[in-house]
Specification:
This protein is 26% helix and 28% strand. It is built from 7 helices and 15 strands. The relative contact order is 0.16. Helix 1 packs parallel to helix 3.
């Protein structure tokens, strides 16, 4: 399986609509060269452009949905279209990822569970998702997570228990914590014996420089490919059978001990 991570530059001066058209074109360019294409988190607005979440929020089947469904179909690829600020007509905003099949059908939607910001930003502007989401592709099962989720290993254990073999993490990760980005991506791969495809943004969101450095890690924790800091398409060939081989050769997941009791007081 060949995966292409498109590390999109989000800069001031480019409208959401112009970026949507440009990104759709980048997806189409992967026709014939990728089976799976991955975009970053909140690339329409920028992950730190909090003041734009409300004005640029879309219904699930809004303009980004339509543009990405068409791009996936035109390119004939599985497309993880990153995430959008979703406006639920019956609830709050959500940070929602969309996955499309090569025919342009919606295969899955994932509402980000862990919202970043503590007592401000995304944490107060958006609702929290409640469901783990996996997507079955030919040869592998994707487990979906988004950015700040990467810091919570129990979420990834849940995805592995649900059958995930390839963990996909779109992000808008800041440059000042880039060392955490690469460290956590490798840790999630090693502890879950799964591929990790972590796709970030380039550029600057609301004055916050982005880390870039999208990364692909194999089930042994080896970095197969890593992008630089600018806009870039990172393409790598994956052998999905390596997950099963790794888990057979080093069956650490079988030694998990669950249901431990708290210490006596």
């Amino acid at each position: 399986m060949r995966a292409s991570l498109i590390q999109i530059a989000v800069e001031e001066g480019e409208s959401v609509e112009a970026r949507r058209v440009r990104v759709a074109s980048l997806v189409r360019e992967q026709a014939g060269s990728a089976d799976l294409v991955v975009l970053p988190e909140l690339w329409t607005t920028g992950a730190f452009a909090y003041e734009e979440f409300g004005s640029e929020a879309e219904p699930l089947e809004g303009p980004t949905y339509e543009a990405m469904a068409k791009a996936a179909s035109d390119a004939g690829v599985w497309l993880h279209a990153g995430s959008i600020p979703e406006r639920d007509p019956d609830g709050p905003l959500y940070n929602t990822s969309l996955v499309f099949s090569p025919s342009g059908e919606l295969a899955a939607a994932y509402r980000k569970i862990h919202r970043f910001g503590f007592d401000k930003g995304e944490a107060v502007l958006m609702g929290a998702g409640r469901e783990l989401v996996t997507v079955r592709l030919p040869g592998t099962t994707l487990g979906l997570a988004t950015c700040y989720d990467l810091r919570f290993p129990e979420l990834f254990r849940g995805l592995v228990d649900a059958g995930a073999e390839t963990l996909v993490v779109p992000a808008g990760w800041p440059e000042r914590r880039r060392s955490h980005w690469t460290l956590l991506a490798q840790a999630r791969a090693v502890e879950n014996q799964a591929f990790v495809l972590a796709c970030g943004t380039a550029g600057t969101h609301a004055g916050v420089p982005q880390a870039g450095h999208s990364i692909v890690v194999d089930p042994w924790g080896e970095v197969l490919a890593e992008a630089g800091s600018g806009e870039e398409v990172l393409t790598v060939d994956l052998d999905p059978s390596k997950v099963a081989t790794t888990r057979e050769q080093f069956p650490a997941l079988k030694d998990r001990v669950l249901g431990l009791q708290p210490p006596r007081r």
